[in-house]
Task: inverse folding
């Protein structure tokens, strides 16, 4: 028994020495270096459709032990907008000893356009018509696509079943936090449901500042309740200043043989 106990003690000592030596060796030879990420430019301009490979342009990584580890860099995250069309992208890299380094830079989407609205019918109604603006107003985003379900409509002056000129605020936000808002006219008139109908190609258009358009080109047709063509008799009224940013309303009028007046409107956004 005494010999056995001595053997166990000796074995314990040997194991302790081995583990002690391994621990000391690991500490002495441990990699204490942290990878370094280098970025060529502070701001990278890319398309909204840029993939991770494009976002990694001009980004390299080096580790003192592992040397060049550029191939191990990943795009960890892309932030919401911090400015118009500008986000922050965060890069991360890990060396063979699981040391992690991170670095950020700005990316600018050179072809980004804020969400835009469209209107599928005139927002000029007879007092006898049912009004559902959410069914005629939609929104499209160059990143998210159709975001119509996220539209919020508010009005400070609209009174149901009352004739008058009102305004409706439409607001929508994309996943990057960009908010678009437009004020649309809502006109309620005490006119017959038999009044002529004026159909337009679009009821909301966007034009660049300084760019003039022919407003008559947007007339598709005008007919009375007997389907008689009144297109050539449509009158256009507008006070648009194409050199000044803003949202303007264009009025289209026509009168049939019985004196009933048709009225349609189109909104024009200049410079946004």
Result:
């Amino acid at each position: 028994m005494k010999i056995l106990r001595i053997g166990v003690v000796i074995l314990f000592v040997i194991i302790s020495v081995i583990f002690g030596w391994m621990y000391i060796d690991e500490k002495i030879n441990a990699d204490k270096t942290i990878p370094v990420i280098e970025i060529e430019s502070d701001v990278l301009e890319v398309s909204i459709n840029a993939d991770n490979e494009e976002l990694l342009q001009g980004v390299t990584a080096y580790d003192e032990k592992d040397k060049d580890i550029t191939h191990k860099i990943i795009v960890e995250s892309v932030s919401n907008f911090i400015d118009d069309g500008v986000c922050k992208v965060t890069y991360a890299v890990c060396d063979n000893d699981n040391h992690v380094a991170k670095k950020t830079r700005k990316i600018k989407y050179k072809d980004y356009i804020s969400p835009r609205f469209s209107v599928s019918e005139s927002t000029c109604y007879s007092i006898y018509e049912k009004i559902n603006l959410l069914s005629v107003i939609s929104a499209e985003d160059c990143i998210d696509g159709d975001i119509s379900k996220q539209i919020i409509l508010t009005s400070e002056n609209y009174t149901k079943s009352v004739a008058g000129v009102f305004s409706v605020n439409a607001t929508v936000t994309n996943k990057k936090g960009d908010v678009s808002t437009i004020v649309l006219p809502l006109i309620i008139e005490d006119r017959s449901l038999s009044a002529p109908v004026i159909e337009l190609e679009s009821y909301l258009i966007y034009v660049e500042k300084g760019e003039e358009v022919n407003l008559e080109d947007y007339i598709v047709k005008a007919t009375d309740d007997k389907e008689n063509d009144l297109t050539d008799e449509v009158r256009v009224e507008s006070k648009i200043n194409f050199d000044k940013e803003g949202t303007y309303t264009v009025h289209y009028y026509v009168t049939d043989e019985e004196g009933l007046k048709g009225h349609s409107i189109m909104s024009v956004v200049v410079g946004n």
Residues 113-189 form a domain with the Immunoglobulin-like fold (CATH 2.60.40.10). The mean pLDDT is 90. The two ends are 95 Å apart (CA to CA). The first strand starts at residue 36 and ends at 39.
